[in-house]
Structures are given as structure tokens and as C-alpha cells.
Amino acid sequence: MDSTTNQRPGWRRFTFLLIVSAMLALTLLASLAAGSTEMSIGRAFLLLFNRDGSVDDALIFSVRMPRAVLAALVGINLAMAGVLIQTLTRNPLASPQTFGINAGASVGIVVLAMVLPSFGPFGNVILAFIGASMVGLIMWALSLDGKANNMKVALSGITIQLVLSALIQGVLIADNSTQDMIFWLVGSVSTAQWPKVLIILPFTIIGGTVAVLAARYIGVLALDRITSQSLGQNSKHVAALTCALILILACPAVAVAGPIGFVGLIVPHVVRFFAGEDQRALLILSGVGGALLLSGADLLGRILAYPAELPVGTLTAMLGAPAFLVIAARKRIR
After folding, report:
1. Cα–Cα distance between 165 and 34 in angstroms, integer?
2. Structural element, H or E, at residue 96
3. H helices within the chain, ranges in order?
4. Would 99 disulfide with which of 71, 139, 175, 255, CB 3.0-4.6 Å?
5. CA separation for the pair 271, 281 (Å, rounded)
6. How big is the CA angle at 213 (ends 207 and 218), to the nearest 5 degrees?
7. How high does pLDDT run on average in the chain?
8. Which of 265, 188, 263, 204 lies closest to 73, judged by CA?
9. What is the distance, to the nearest Å, from the Cα of residue 142 to the centroid of all Cα atoms in its chain?
10. pLDDT range class, residue 4, cuts 50, 70, 90
11. In the predicted model, is pLDDT for residue 313 greater than 90?
12. Which residue, among 136, 123, 131, has the nearest Cα to 105 in the 3D structure?
């Protein structure tokens, strides 16, 4: 009976992975078929394995596939970054958005890119790292302050985000920025191209792989400092690695798709119901769940506003704001 009980979490995780992976595959396939030019899902599926050089073929592989892949990669990065930041700070309300990291990265890109516009796409990632690192250090210092509880830290992060967002909007208005830049600020993958996919892909592979391999050490950070030290772990080194991984995952996502919010907050909490607190399972399942959430939101945004579309960041905000309140209420954080 005990062995059966011990096997249940593993079965729940495996079942969850199968279901979410199947849903993700269907969502990505539907994304290839959805758009202003009508195409059946069957036609899109056949073209994946038998390219014929038609207009539909070019549409899928040049326009819709990079968008679908980019949405999935951004979702993976944000969800895994959310797991890491919640573990690092031991704060259930922590995420790249609520801790102001997304806004910090956006400031780095928008403000500095106007001064040095020749930086290019890879330069945007560097600027995102600079901006996010500055905000991240401030928020980490606040989270280590014993006088500040989880809610106060989260509200501080949201305040920083609002201030930085107002700064960004002021800069964009003063600069007469284009609609594309405003769309990016909301969070969108509508301008996805293969070069953007190639920008974020190495960070997803490296950051995700290192996080999963180091999961057993990172998971100990969820314990108090005395307990982690009693287990023979150098908490400072692991915390520094975790901070680096958060930036490696979150900053490229902001650079290519804008400051999309709440993915890193919602997904880890849903996944914990199936994965428990096992850090490795939590990271893997959150990555798949994040890909599904963002791909699904992007697809839904195209369907709801057809023939126009809603930015994916708008839909994640509509889901995330109520989720934030529910999580705060359930945790009874004061």
C-alpha cells in the first residue's frame, strides 16, 4: 500500500505531461492553420511532412511556424523563470512581472535602444539583461529583508513595474513610436520571424537544461537558510546561479516578445497541484505548461478579434490579474 502511495505522484506527473503535451501539439497545429488566409488543420498537418512549394507552404513555414515556435519558447522561458524566482524568494506571489523584472528589461530595451539604435536584436537581449538585473537586485534585497512579508514584497515589485511602465510609455509618446513598438510593449508574438526564434532558442536550451540538472540544489533554496546549510549546500552559490538562470530565461523572452505578464505566476501554481514540490518535475512540467498557455493565448487572440488580433499579453493579463488575487487570498498572506 505504501509503494502504491509513493507511485501516485509519479503517475500524476506523467499523466499531466501526456495530457498537456497532447494539448500543446494540437494548439500548435491549430496555430499553423489559423489566420486571415483560411486553411484546414488537415492541410496544415500534411504540409508539415510533404512540402509542395505552394502559397500555403510558404505561409506556414515563413510566417505561422516561426510565430508558433516563438510563442512556445517564450512560454517555456517565462514559466520556468517563475518557478525559479518563487523558489529563490520563497514567495508564492513572485514572478518575472510581479518582481518588476519584465519592466526592468523593457526599460533597458526601449530607453537605451533609442540612444543606441544600432544594437540590433542581440543587443536588445544585452540591454534587457542590464535593466532586469538592476531591478532584480533591488527586489532580491527586499525579499531578504525579514521585515517585509510576501505581500509587501510583491506589491513593491508591482509598484516598480507601474513606475517603469509609465516611464516607458512617456518615452514612446515623446519619440512618436510606431504601432509595432506599442504592440511589443503590451506583449506580442505577431512579428515573429525565424531570426527571433534563433535569438531565444539558445537561452531556452541552456537555461532550461542547467535549471533541470541543478534542480535538486535549487529546490533546497525553498527551505530556510539554516536547513540548507545543514544539508551541506552553499546557499550563496546556488542562489547566484538561480539569479543568473532567471535572467537567462526571462530577458530574451522580453527582448523578442515584450513584457508578457503572469505566465510565470499562473503556471507554477497549477503545476504544483500535479507535481508537488519536486523541483525537477516542477520545472519540466511548468515549461510544457507555459508553452501551452502562451500558444493557446496567441491562438485565442487571433480567433476572438478576427480578422484583427489581440496581443497575447492582453489575454495573459486578463487571466493573470484574477489569478493573482485568488493566489493571494488562498495563501492568506498578510
Report:
1. 32
2. none
3. 2-33, 41-49, 55-59, 65-89, 101-115, 120-144, 150-174, 179-186, 194-213, 215-219, 225-230, 235-257, 263-275, 279-304, 312-331
4. 139
5. 9
6. 85
7. 82
8. 204
9. 22
10. very low
11. no
12. 131
Q: At 287, phi and psi to the nearest 5?
A: -60, -45
214, three cell numbers:
541543478
Going by C-beta distance under 8 Å and a sequence separation of 6 or more, which residues neighbour residue 31?
A: 64, 67, 68, 71, 295, 298, 299
Could you report how far apart the first and last alpha carbons of the chain are, in Å? 40
DSSP per-residue codes, 204-261: HHHHHHHHHHTHHHHHGGGS-HHHHHHTT--HHHHHHHHHHHHHHHHHHHHHHH----
Q: The C-alpha cell of 21 is what? A: 503535451
Q: Which helix (H) or strand (E) holds 311?
A: none
How many C-beta neighbours within 10 Å does residue 116 have? 10
> Which one, of 124, 85, 332, lies nearest residue 221 by Cα?
85
**Distances in whole angstroms, Cα of residue 205 to Cα of each of 24, 74, 210, 248:** 18, 12, 8, 10
pLDDT in tens, 194-245: 999 999 999 999 999 999 999 998 988 877 665 555 555 667 788 889 989 9
Question: Could you tell me which residues come within 8 angstroms of residue 295 by beta carbon, excluding any fewer than 6 positions away?
Answer: 24, 27, 28, 31, 68, 71, 72, 75
CB 143 within 8 A of CB 242: no
192: left (phi over 0), alpha (psi -120 to 50) or beta: beta
Q: What is the DSSP letter of 26?
A: H
Spatial distance between the Cα atoms of 211 and 290, rounded to a whole number of angstroms:
15
Instruction: Check residue 3 and give its pLDDT.
Output: 45
For residue 99, which phi and psi values (nearest 5 degrees)? -100, 10
Cell of 13: 506527473
* Helix 235-257 vs helix 101-115: crossing angle, to nearest 10: 60
The distance from CA 299 to its chain's CA centroid, rounded to whole angstroms, is 17
How is residue 104 written as a grid cell?
526592468
Given this model, what pLDDT does residue 232 score? Answer: 57
